[in-house]
Amino acid sequence: MQFIDSYKFNTTTKILSIFVCVFSCLLLIPTVKAQKKQYVVVLDAGHGGHDPGKVGYKRVKEKEIALKIVLQIGKLLKPKKDIKVVYTRKKDVFVDLLERGNIANDAKADIFISVHCNAHSTQALGTETWVLGLHANRKNFEVAKQENSVILLEDNYKEKYKGFDPNSPESVIGLTLLQEENLDKSLKLASSVQRNLTSKLKRKNRGVKQAGFVVLYQTTMPSILIETGFITNKHESHFLGSIKGQLQISTQIANAIKKYIVQLKLNTVQEKKDIQEKKQVIKEVLFKVQIASGRNKIALKSYNFKGLKNVERIKTGSTYKYYYSISSDYNTTKKGLFLAKSKGYTTAFIIAFKDGERIALLKALKLP
After folding, report:
1. What DSSP line would sit under 300-341, residue for residue?
2. Strand 223-230 to 111-118 pairing
C-alpha cells in the first residue's frame, strides 16, 4: 500500500514537472510579429492574343517583347517578401483594356505598370514613360490614339466604354480627370523608371509625358505606361528582342519599383508619426469654413477650388465635405469666409469643432 502511494506521488510529480517544463519553454518562444503589409504591384504586358500590337523590324511583335519583359520584372521582384506581383496576363492571350484595369482594382494594387513598345515610320529611337493626363500636343495624342485603338478589337466596345471614341481628342481629354488624385504619385514613379532606363542604360531619353490612355484611366492607383523602345528601329529592335536587352530593361524597371515602395513605407511611417503627434497635442476649438459637399472625391488642388489653397477634405458616410480657412482664431476663419464668398462660394458658412466633434458655433464662441 505504501509502495502504491509512493508510486502515485512520483508519477504525479513527473507529470507536473513535464508540464512546467513545456510551459516554460513556450514562454521562451518569441511571439510571432504581426504580418507586414505586402505592396501589390500589377504588371501589365500590353496587347496579346489576336492583337499583336506594333510589328517592327524583321516582324518582331510588341506583344511578345512586352510579355517577356513583364515576366522578367516579376521574377526579379519575387524574392521581396513585402511585394506581391499580380499579372494581367502571363501568356499570349487577349485581355481587353477594361479587364486590365479591373484586375488591378480588384487586387487593391498599390501601383500599376503597363509595358509596351513604340513604333514609327522613321528610325526614331529611345524610351518614354507616360502617365494619364492632358496631351500637350498632337504627337502625344497620336501615341495614346494608337494604344487606345485596341478597344476596336473588343466586342461591344461602344457599350463597355460608354461611347468613348479613341479618334476624338475631346473624348480622350475627358478621361484624365478621373486619375487626378494619383497624378503626383504617378509622375514620381514614372520619373524614377525613366531615369533608370536612360541614365543607367545610356539610352535616348524621350521624357515623362502625359496623354489619355484608356488602360490607365480604368485604374484607381498610381499608374504608368512604359514605351520601352522602338521596334521599328533596326538597332533598338535587336536590343529589345535580345535576352540581354530584356534583362537590362526589366532590372531597371524592377529597381525603380523597389525604390518607390521604400518611399511608400517611409511615408507610411511618417503618417503614423504625424497622427501620434496630433493625438498628443492638447485639443482646442477649431473653426472652419465649409465651402462644398457632395459625393465626388475632388483632388485638393487650388485650381479645383477657384484658387483657394489648403482646402481640407473629410468623408462623412458617402459624402465628402470640403473645408477652408481652418483656425483656432474665429476672426481668421471669418476673413476666410469673406474670401470664399467673393470667389463664388455664396453658400459657404462657418462651423466649429472640438476634439474632432462638431459643436454649436455659439457654444464655441462662448456666447449665451
Report:
1. --GGGGTT--S-EEEEETTEEEEEEEEES-HHHHHHHHHHHH
2. parallel
Cβ-based neighbours of 271, under 8 Å, separated by 6 or more: none
Q: How confident is the model at residue 140 (pLDDT cuts 50, 70, 90)?
A: low
**354 falls within a domain:** yes
Under 8 Å between Cβ of 255 and 149: no
- Crossing angle, helix 234-241 and helix 243-280, to 10 degrees? 70
Q: Per residue in 293-312, pLDDT tens?
A: 988 889 898 888 999 999 99
Domain finish residue from 206, 230, 265: 265
Question: Which candidate, 189, 227, 218, places its Cα nearest to that of 41?
Answer: 189
Q: Which grid coordinates are listed for 167?
A: 479618334
Is-contact 240 248, C-beta < 8 A?
Answer: no
**Domain enclosing residue 165, as ranges:** 39-265
At residue 130 the predicted structure's pLDDT band, cuts being 50, 70 and 90, is: very high
Q: Tell me if 270 is assigned to some domain.
A: no
Instruction: Kindly state whether residues 134 and 219 are assigned to the same domain.
Output: yes
What is the spatial distance between Cα 247 and Cα 86, in angstroms, rounded to a whole number? 19
pLDDT tens track for 199-245: 999 999 999 998 878 788 778 899 999 999 999 999 999 999 999 99
- Closest alpha carbon to 225 in 142, 127, 150: 127
Q: Looking at residues 323-347, what average pLDDT do you find?
A: 92
